[in-house]
Amino acid sequence: METKRLYSFDIFDTLLARQCEADQVARDVIGSRLGKSEEARRLLDRVRPAAKRAADNRLKWATTLEDVYREAAFIIDTTEIDGHDLVQSELACEIEALYPIPENVQKLRAARAQRADIVFVSDMHIRAPRLQEILQHFGLWKEGDRIFVSCDFGLTKAEGLFDILIENGHLPAKGVVHVGNSYDSDVRPAERAGFEAVHLDRGNVNAYERSLGAYSHETMGLSARLAGASRYARLHVPAESPHHGHLRDVAAGVVSPVLVPFVLWALRRADREGVKRLYFPHPEGHILFQIARRLVEKGADVACEPRAIYVSRQALRCACSGKDGKANCEDCDGDPEPLEIGSADLVVDYLRQEGLGDAGRNGIVEHGGTGSIHALLNRVVAATAMNDFTVWGGCFGLTSSVQDFQNAREAFFFDENRGVGWNPLRSDTELQQMMEVFCASNHGSVTGYRRSAPQRIDPEVEESSESRLEAWGLRVVHDTIHRFLDVLVVDDHLARFAKLLRPPQAEIIHAFWERPGRGEANAWGAFPREWVTGDGKTVEPCASAYHWSDIVAFARYGRKGHEKIRHQRSWLEGSLAVCSDSLKYVLQITMRLSRKGRHLKERLFKSTLF
């Protein structure tokens, strides 16, 4: 910024953001201050919005918190409401719910370093002295600063607050830089007043956070809780490049709100089923295990112990059949598996070593698919008489799952066998692809087991994938998930009603996977996907741009054309998003025509049969 005589800063969503909605702050106040009077608490909770509307109708932008609570007391006709006391309490709750936006606060400090005068201008129903207390609390206020609030003047910035301040000599007519988050409330009004305007919109709620917040009422406020944690994580994890920025934003807005409630549900359901240890198979369960440990540390009311275990479908199949693991596995769901596992005895001994043979019931969590790891693990337990209890299984979503031990398996999002829930994506394959990317680990696949001591067996894992995933930005994704967990309020309410979050989760999943932006598709499409081919292992990006010559494959195979051009686990919508607009349009038209052509052929074929 150039040296200016005076800088004007908006406050909320520019310098400070909330961990929750403003209405939630008010509800916290009501619950804490009127806890002894349940009837008054419920009444005020319902009446406060009406009181705010009534005060706004009478006073417009001159409405203050005092006016709102005075109106609420008038509506309820009660003497139990102490307006002054509640205003003080709401201010205290407001401070607890706020946090500085690091990137934007640096702009304020840079302005101070230029020895510029600082004023704060805000559209708010909290009067200037109280806003000054909030700024002082976060170290944003210095002696000599000034503050102007819409409720003190009865005008918003868009309605002419800047002009009033200029006319009354509070601000100079020229040489002012106004910094704010809203184009309509900050940039345009400031420019109309003759100021230079700087638009800082990083603190604004993004599309994913808006989708989560929109379901606040029907999720009893839980989705708003996720939205607040998502926003905090997005604003507090630094990004070294636009690529890392897109990884962080999706990790905060989609990955964390999807995975964290799922793991919390799995912990609670396992606990209710009497599970003593809940295992997370590595590498695919690495981040789920990390989430589970953090949830327990944050006070999740469960008795079961989260544990990591290094197993694969092929290793379990070897243990069940008593053979070495060099053959392909029928229960692998087509996933790439290591070529050699070792003797079956080592696998069984490793499972015993990890506690699966101890007394009590155990459980295992899979991120989706058919539940094959759960079924294979139960086969091993049954074949070796390792434990008297059936292993419980928790999955994100269950398709046409393996039939063995199906009654001991539950799903969070949908279970096609039981006919409940729904798949938020077009196909089971796409959901599995997405969850594999979300649950990526820097640990390689299990390649075998070795006896490092007479009573100790260690898994051997492939290490070649670690550098690729680190280069892609896996650390940024995991750091963002941990930041999300730092501020998320974890309680029994969230655990009990986690499934209420599925509608907003479905919306953000669909928005990201089916309609990604170009930047998101470039960043997440660069994920290095690995699978086994006839020549060994191959690594290709999850998504990459198509060429005009690829139209032929889409004309012939429709949406399945992407599997012929790239690989079976490529991300179609991500690849389309990074294409030129013209090629994307032609490919979409081609797929529609191909689908209509196939339907026409099917009708003609059926008509010839009768």
Characterise this structure:
With 610 residues, this protein is α/β, with parallel strands linked by helices. 51% of the residues lie in helices and 15% in strands. It contains 26 helices and 17 strands. A six-stranded mixed sheet has the order 9-8-10-11-12-13, with helices on one face. The protein has a five-stranded parallel sheet with strand order 5-4-1-6-7, with helices on both faces. The chain has a two-stranded antiparallel sheet with strand order 2-3. Helix 13 (286-297) links the parallel strand 8 (275-282) and strand 9 (305-310). Helix 2 crosses helix 3.
The percentage of residues in β strands lies in: 5-15%
What structural category arises from helix and sheet content?
alpha/beta
The percent range for helix content is: 40-55%
Give, in spatial order, the strands making up the sheet with the most strands: 9-8-10-11-12-13
Task: Write a brief caption for the model.
By secondary structure, the chain is of the alpha/beta class. The protein is built from 26 helices and 17 strands.
List keywords for this structure.
single chain; 610 residues; alpha/beta; six-stranded mixed β-sheet; five-stranded parallel β-sheet; 26 helices; 17 strands; globular
Question: Helices, strands, pairings?
Answer:
Blueprint: E1 6-9, E2 16-18, H1 22-33, H2 38-59, H3 65-76, H4 83-97, E3 98-100, H5 102-113, E4 117-122, H6 128-137, E5 146-149, H7 150-153, H8 161-167, E6 176-180, H9 183-192, E7 196-199, H10 207-214, H11 222-236, H12 242-272, E8 275-282, H13 286-297, E9 305-310, H14 313-321, H15 344-353, E10 361-366, H16 372-384, E11 392-398, E12 409-415, E13 420-421, H17 428-438, E14 446-453, E15 456-461, H18 464-472, H19 474-487, H20 492-496, H21 502-514, H22 518-525, E16 528-533, E17 536-541, H23 551-557, H24 561-565, H25 572-577, H26 581-609
Parallel strand pairs: 1-4, 1-6, 4-5, 6-7, 8-9, 8-10, 10-11, 11-12
Antiparallel strand pairs: 2-3, 12-13, 14-15, 16-17
